[in-house]
Amino acid sequence: MDVLKITPRGYCHGVVEAIRAAKQTAKARPGEKIHMLGYLVHNTHVTDELQGSGIDLVDRDNRLEGLEAIDGGTVIFTAHGVSPAVKERAQARGLKTVDATCSDVVVTHDLVRDLAERGYDIIYIGRRGHPEPEGVLGEAPGRVHLVQDPQDIEALDIKNPKVAVTCQTTLSIWDTAAMIKLVREKYPQTEAYNEICRATQDRQEAAVEAAKECDLVIVVGSERSSNSKRLVQVVEELAHKPAYLVDTARDIRPEWLAGKTRVGVTSGASTPTQLTREVIEYLEKL
Ligand code: SF4
I need a labelling partner for 269 at 20 to 30 A (CA). Which of 21, 180, 195, 244 fits? Predict the structure, then answer.
């Protein structure tokens, strides 16, 4: 099997920083209770390793609920960010905090807060149930409207002449452009702020380009990872090639490769390099 190693792939700066912050916290506070409020980054291997170094995972439907389950010590806010209400509640409960929010997500929080203060209604393109929208929506409750698909845009009823649109950092570049276009058709006065991060854009563009020269693409990443799933989506929709998400080399099914000679390999922004290396080695041996 000819294996095309797609670059860039794997860890982004936000993930590297978040892991470093969590590991440093565990090292600096031996014997203390340390909790991560949700998956630090959306990869089970990374969180398993952190749990092995003594950091407890508190995974609840929302961050405020999770906070109530913590009975003291230090809480680490994950790379996806948290709402101001979570930070205030943690402080009120006397918990020590470590904020591992990615700097790119912080930029979106600042933007949304600023727009709300200046009287805008903000349409936020994102995925329901993902922690990043939960945090951003909390910057201006009632003023940020989460939309996931065109039906959500149709259902909007904003009377405010000041409208802005922005988005989650890890969406498909192409989907988001189409959604922004729909918003502008409905509210022509809309100011658009595309907040898809550079790491996501670079990985998607590289995957689509490389996929054109491959029979299929394997994306190494977790089912929880938004940016990994978007890599599968953009390869399928833009390059019209089959794409599969695998957590490890063991998930690769022989029938995907039958009659194929060239496979592209990429990985999500929170996928450890070792897992991707194992997938590449497995494919190269075929
Ligand atoms: Fe930050 Fe983008 Fe990485 Fe998410 S994918 S942690 S927003 S750099």
Answer: 180
Question: How much is the pLDDT for 61?
Answer: 86
Domain count of the fold of the chain: 3
137 touches ligand 1 (CB under 6 Å): no
Of 36, 70, 101, the one marking the end of a domain is 101
Last residue of a domain, one of 49, 68, 101: 101
79 lines ligand 1 (CB under 6 A): yes
The closest of 219, 227, 221 to 196, measured between CA atoms, is 227
- For atom 1 of ligand 1, the residue with the nearest CA is 14
Q: Which pLDDT tens digit goes with each residue over 182-207?
A: 999 999 999 999 999 999 999 999 99
Residue of 17, 68, 88, 132 with catalytic role: 132
Instruction: Calculate mean pLDDT across residues 151-156.
Output: 98
Tell me if 251 sits within 8 A of 279, measured CB to CB: no
Domain span including residue 41: 13-101
CB 145 within 8 Å of CB 121: yes
| Integer Cα distance of 53 and 33 in angstroms | 12
Question: Is 117 considered catalytic here?
Answer: no
pTM over 0.85: yes
Q: Is 270 in the pocket of ligand 1 (CB under 6 A)?
A: no
